[in-house]
User: Which sequence fits this backbone?
């Protein structure tokens, strides 16, 4: 039986059919492309979606897509992971974190193994809003929110702290490992050794920050960028638009994902971020310190800073030997260049951060492309 | 392997398999157990009997579409059904935490009776233990079941053959997503209900095809991907699944997309995966679709000619673009991503 007959057995929706046929049509145009080009995506969801939708395998050989620093788990420094583990072990303290932080190896243990074997208190959260109810119910517990992610998740954390201040909750604290993508792109480009010809820009983050923050990519570095969605057709269209701008040498920042990303982004969400946070320099795993790429609490919210609970030392940290995650995050090397990849470092026994997160480049390579 | 038990060793993914292979099978293994089927088949005189057991713990205990009682009966009935057996008798053992409300227990037991009635089986023996408050959380139920293997059916995970077509009896991932939505109060469509239900009628409907049915499993923990990996390994075959052919409710798909979860790795509790000889596939599909619990059945893939080889991907997914990729086995408990 041919695959088409298999699909015919499934009563799919017209919109789904249209989308798939649009993707195939765009792919045909793409397959005519001949000039070599290296494109970088900077969003963990793109990393995974390029594999799962099959777009990566369908690209012509001359078009190379590499993954940049778009996975929030991967770029969280080891010191911060150790801090989180420290909070989880602290007396009368519970750490709230997202699921994909649980399995990142710290120096001696992960949050997951700390919880399983040493009684550390770690709660997997689906939404930071859960913190409010917990903090009310357990007034004698200190609750530390492990704040990871980009502008997409930050507004929700901001709303939790605004609410905590209103309700005068004294037992909520924030460990801020938030990051902003445009400064990281700038850092990559200003290092001057980038071989990237264009950027596939993140759909979710852009729905908050809008189009303007990427202006420097075209303005200062004369490279094109396209904000793209996550369906096959979105990504292929984004790549086509990039290739056209590369060919015509007319770099611009275009928005392919107009159904979700208004040019101005979401000013209300940004206002929430601005109410609670102020930009600061911050460390990125694999990239070092990047100017104004992190988020510190403003003075009025300083009392939520988890650092004041730090009555413990964190062990000296050292990146795992032979791990090239830093180079992978910069887009300089691919996972298969790593001697650990697929041998001692696999998703069940990860060594580097890019293998832990489901959105990490190494994990995506390992899961979908072997 | 780790030196202590980890949560994800109970998740039906890779970690569960490691535990099985490194602890249980070396000590308990025998030719029946080693098959690792949903039920064991044993001969009593001329009768072929299927025998199975399963423990149930779920949070929340009551969820849209059912409760731990429904789950404990349907789970065991479905393990029997996947072996080609029609259920005869069940046992139920309860471990209950001190302070658990009797009214809740009554509701749970009521659901167990309803599910057993639906399955045409009786709960004929049982046990109750009560443990002190805080020793465990709420209630655990262990059920065992025996069933009569239907004449003509010989179902093993190792029975799949090249060119077999693969059928699923309905939509994927409903149970896992309904539980997640209820437990974490995610606020997705409350109409997303667990699919928990007995599937024995589906097996009865197709049993006349006898040797044309090569393998069956109910895709619970680890989801469809987990079952396909196990069948590929046990049958020494490779499998191709067509992504667009797998029926998934639009709201379930949206929920998975948002959380970064793959519907193919999420648990089901009222579905059956059937491997059939290609010439019988249409008949199987027709029979299954005639039942209300099978009306969304679909052919989702096939067994390829390429034999299984250790180290290369045993399950391939064909995307809507027509490209092929590896369908991974879940590493452990599915974790939602950050953004």
Assistant:
């Amino acid at each position: 039986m041919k695959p088409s007959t298999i699909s015919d057995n499934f009563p799919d929706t017209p919109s789904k059919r249209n989308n798939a046929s649009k993707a195939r049509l765009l792919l045909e145009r793409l397959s005519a492309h001949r000039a070599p080009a290296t494109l970088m995506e900077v969003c963990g969801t793109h990393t995974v979606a390029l594999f799962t939708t099959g777009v990566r395998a369908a690209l012509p050989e001359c078009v190379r897509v590499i993954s940049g620093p778009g996975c929030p788990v991967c770029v969280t420094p080891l010191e911060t992971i150790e801090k989180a583990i420290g909070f989880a072990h602290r007396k009368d303290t519970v750490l709230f974190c997202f699921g994909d932080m649980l399995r990142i190896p710290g120096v001696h243990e992960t949050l997951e193994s700390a919880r399983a074997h040493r009684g550390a208190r770690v709660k997997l959260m689906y939404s930071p809003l859960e913190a409010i109810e917990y903090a009310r119910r357990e007034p004698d517990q200190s609750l530390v929110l492990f704040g990871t992610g980009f502008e997409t998740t930050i507004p929700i954390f901001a709303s939790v702290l605004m609410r905590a201040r209103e309700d005068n909750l004294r037992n909520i604290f924030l460990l801020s490992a938030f990051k902003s993508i445009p400064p990281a792109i700038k850092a990559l480009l200003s290092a001057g050794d980038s071989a990237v010809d264009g950027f596939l820009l993140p759909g979710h983050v852009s729905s908050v920050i809008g189009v303007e923050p990427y202006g420097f990519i075209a303005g200062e570095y004369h490279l094109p960028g396209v904000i793209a969605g996550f369906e096959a057709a979105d990504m292929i269209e984004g790549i086509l638009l990039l290739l056209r701008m590369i060919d015509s040498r007319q770099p611009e920042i275009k928005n392919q994902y107009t159904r979700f990303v208004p040019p101005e982004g979401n000013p209300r969400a940004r206002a929430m971020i601005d109410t609670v946070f102020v930009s600061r320099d911050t460390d990125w795993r694999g990239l070092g310190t990047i100017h104004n790429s992190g988020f510190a609490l403003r003075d009025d919210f300083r009392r939520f800073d988890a650092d004041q609970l730090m009555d413990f030392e964190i062990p000296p940290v050292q990146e795992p030997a032979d791990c090239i995650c830093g180079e992978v995050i910069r887009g300089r090397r691919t996972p298969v260049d790593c001697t650990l990849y697929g041998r001692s470092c696999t998703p069940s026994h990860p060594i580097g951060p890019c293998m832990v997160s489901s959105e990490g480049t190494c994990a995506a390579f390992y899961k979908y492309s072997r | 392997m780790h030196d202590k038990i980890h949560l994800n060793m109970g998740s039906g993914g890779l970690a569960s398999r490691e535990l099985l292979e490194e602890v249980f099978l070396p000590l308990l293994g025998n030719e029946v157990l080693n098959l690792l089927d949903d039920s064991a088949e044993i001969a009593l005189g001329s009768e072929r009997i299927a025998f199975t057991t399963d423990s149930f713990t779920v949070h929340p205990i009551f969820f849209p579409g059912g409760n731990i009682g429904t789950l404990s009966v349907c789970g065991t009935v479905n393990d029997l059904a996947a072996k080609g057996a029609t259920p005869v008798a069940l046992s139920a053992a309860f471990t209950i935490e001190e302070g658990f409300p009797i009214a809740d227990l009554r509701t749970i037991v009521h659901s167990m009776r309803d599910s057993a009635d639906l399955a045409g089986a009786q709960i004929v023996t049982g046990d109750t233990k009560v443990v002190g408050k805080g020793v465990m959380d709420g209630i655990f139920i262990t059920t065992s079941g025996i069933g009569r293997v239907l004449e003509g059916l010989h179902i093993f995970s190792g029975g799949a053959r090249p060119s077999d077509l693969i059928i699923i009896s309905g939509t994927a991932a409903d149970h896992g997503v309904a539980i997640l939505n209820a437990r974490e109060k995610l606020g997705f469509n409350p109409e997303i209900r667990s699919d928990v239900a007995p599937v024995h009628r589906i097996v009865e409907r197709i049993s006349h095809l006898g040797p044309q049915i090569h393998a069956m499993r109910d895709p619970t923990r680890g989801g469809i991907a987990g079952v396909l990996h196990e069948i590929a390994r046990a049958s020494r075959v490779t499998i191709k699944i067509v992504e667009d052919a797998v029926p998934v409710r639009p709201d379930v798909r949206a929920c998975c997309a948002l959380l970064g979860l793959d519907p193919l790795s999420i648990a089901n509790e009222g579905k059956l995966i059937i491997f059939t000889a290609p010439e019988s596939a249409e008949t199987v599909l027709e029979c299954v679709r005639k039942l209300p619990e099978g009306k969304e059945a679909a052919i989702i893939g096939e067994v390829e000619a390429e034999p299984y080889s250790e180290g290369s991907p045993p399950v391939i997914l064909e995307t809507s673009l027509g490209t092929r990729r590896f369908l991974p086995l879940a590493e452990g408990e599915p974790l939602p991503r950050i953004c």
Q: What stands out?
A: Residues 157-326 of chain B form a domain with the Phosphoribosyl-aminoimidazole Synthetase; Chain A, domain 2 fold (CATH 3.90.650.10). The longest strand of chain B covers residues 85-97. Chain B has eight helices and 14 strands. Chain B has three domains: 1-30, 34-149, 157-326.
